[in-house]
Amino acid sequence: MKKSVFSLVLAVVVGATAFATTPIKVEKKEVKTSESTVTWKGYKVTGSHYGTINLKEGALMFDGDKLTGGEFVVDMTSLISTDLEGESKGKLEGHLKSDDFFGTSNNPTSKLVFTTVKASGKNSYQVTGDLTIKGKTNSIMFDVSVYGNKATATMKVDRSKYDVKYGSGSFFDNLGDKTIYDEFDLVVDLAF
């Protein structure tokens, strides 16, 4: 009896030591912000607007060639419209940066931190992350594809969860054709 208890304890200690000496090797790959793009598109009853916003910094984490994490900071003050020109462009950009929308003077950055990453196919991952906009953090799910030193992601963001209420049918009645839909799209192309 003593011999089998001793053998069991020895097996547990050896097994625990084997796990302790095989750490996961996580490699952090910095994103090349000048070669990466974030494109946004917002929708309203009468059409849509689209543009870009710059990454301030970011990194993806890998174990070998497997994506395991990521963290990004977006420069909200860089938000521009690419579908308009002249006075209309300036008005839209100013309004989007105002407190009616993203309040960039008080909230110059937004942040995304991956919380879970699950492989969903070859080079494909389902990611859950914490997205912070205007100081409010909510969970978001999206897909990421990784090929070599490039990654792409497409996500839908519900602005109403981040206190961006202007023109939202979720908060205001009888807006008619002035209604701006709560969800907007982000398409992210990363180089690292």
Describe the protein.
- This protein has 192 residues and is α+β, with helices and mostly antiparallel strands.
- It has helices at 2-20, 86-97; strands at residues 27-30, 37-44, 47-63, 66-81, 109-121, 124-133, 136-147, 150-158, 180-191.
- A hairpin with a 2-residue loop joins strand 5 (109-121) and strand 6 (124-133).
- It is elongated, with a radius of gyration of 22 Å.
- The N and C termini lie far apart (58 Å).
Report the β-strand fraction as a percent range. Answer: over 45%
Could you say which overall geometry the principal axes of the C-alpha atoms support? elongated
* Number of continuous helical runs: 2
According to DSSP, the number of beta strands is 9
Biggest β-sheet, characterized?
8 strands, antiparallel, barrel
Provide the succession of SSEs: HEEEEHEEEEE
The rounded distance between the terminal residues' Cα atoms is: 58 Å
